[in-house]
């Protein structure tokens, strides 16, 4: 996890004590990019502010990666992965506000599995791809749908500040081909699927991406959203939950500052 504590950004691991209470084992640095070790310092989870668990150098995202979402959008199934880039400035953390921009009247949530890269990856084979993954976290690929329709491509509609919530933490060692993924708005279920429904699985995505560009430690791959996407408005609270990871929750506010 990445967290704010006593005016500093720090890194740690969530653990449970003998009494079941959660605490943080503070690490000496960023474990995604360095060989960080445990410092011996323990901090109660209740005293820290969760941040996005990684600050990516780049975010590579795939669209139309679930057949049911393609159907609900009335689009054609791509013959190759449909990739786009999302700026690092879009990243925000658990509990942070998603700002509804004045330029849009149709902002939507998209629950996604996020892959955090742990090793420099270039021309990686599918069979070896998951060895380059540090771990997995929840993502919300927030989208100004009206701008996407008008523009004809996804990048700008998904690039606004706060349009990439990540969290609550990174979990290593999961099987990315069999994770339940869900979203809610104000507690009401909206999406419910399994990552096994992806048209292009995580390992194949990494192989495809790294044939063209290098993924560095800390980079994030967003893997697409299942059906059930829908609108957000200021005052809503949206959550993304993935089995084995947890829940990422964010309130929505007006973007007018």
TrEMBL record:
Residues of the Rv2993c-like N-terminal domain: 2-53
Lineage top rank: taxon: Bacteria
Domain Fumarylacetoacetase-like C-terminal span(s) in chain numbering: 58-252
Keyword Amino-acid biosynthesis attached: no
Gene Ontology process terms (BP): carboxylic acid metabolic process
Stated name of the protein: FAA hydrolase family protein
Keyword terms of this UniProt record: Hydrolase, Metal-binding
Pfam families in UniProt: FAA_hydrolase, Rv2993c-like_N
One GO molecular-function entry: acetylpyruvate hydrolase activity
Upper lineage: Bacteria, Bacillati, Actinomycetota, Actinomycetes, Kitasatosporales
């Amino acid at each position: 996890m990445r967290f704010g504590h006593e005016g500093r950004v720090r890194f740690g691991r969530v653990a449970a004590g003998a009494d079941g209470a959660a605490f943080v084992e503070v690490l000496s640095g960023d474990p995604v990019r360095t060989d960080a070790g445990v410092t011996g310092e323990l901090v109660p989870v209740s005293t820290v502010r969760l941040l996005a668990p990684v600050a990516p150098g780049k975010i590579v995202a795939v669209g139309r990666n679930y057949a049911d979402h393609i159907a609900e959008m009335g689009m054609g199934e791509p013959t190759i992965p449909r990739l786009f880039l999302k700026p690092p400035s879009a990243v925000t953390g658990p509990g942070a506000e998603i700002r509804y921009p004045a330029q849009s009247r149709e902002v939507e949530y998209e629950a996604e599995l996020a892959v955090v890269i742990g090793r420099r990856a270039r021309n990686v084979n599918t069979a070896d791809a998951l060895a380059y993954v540090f771990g997995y976290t929840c993502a919300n690929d927030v989208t100004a749908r009206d701008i996407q329709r008008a523009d004809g491509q996804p990048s700008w509609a998904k690039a606004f500040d706060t349009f990439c919530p990540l969290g609550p933490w990174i979990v290593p060692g999961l099987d990315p081909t069999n994770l339940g993924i869900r979203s809610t708005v104000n507690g009401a279920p909206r999406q419910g699927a399994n990552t096994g429904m992806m048209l292009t699985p995580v390992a194949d995505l990494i192989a495809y991406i790294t044939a063209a560009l290098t993924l560095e430690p800390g980079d994030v791959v967003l893997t697409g959203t299942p059906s059930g996407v829908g609108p957000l408005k200021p005052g809503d609270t949206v959550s993304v939950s993935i089995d084995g990871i947890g829940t990422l929750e964010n309130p929505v506010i007006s973007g007018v500052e």
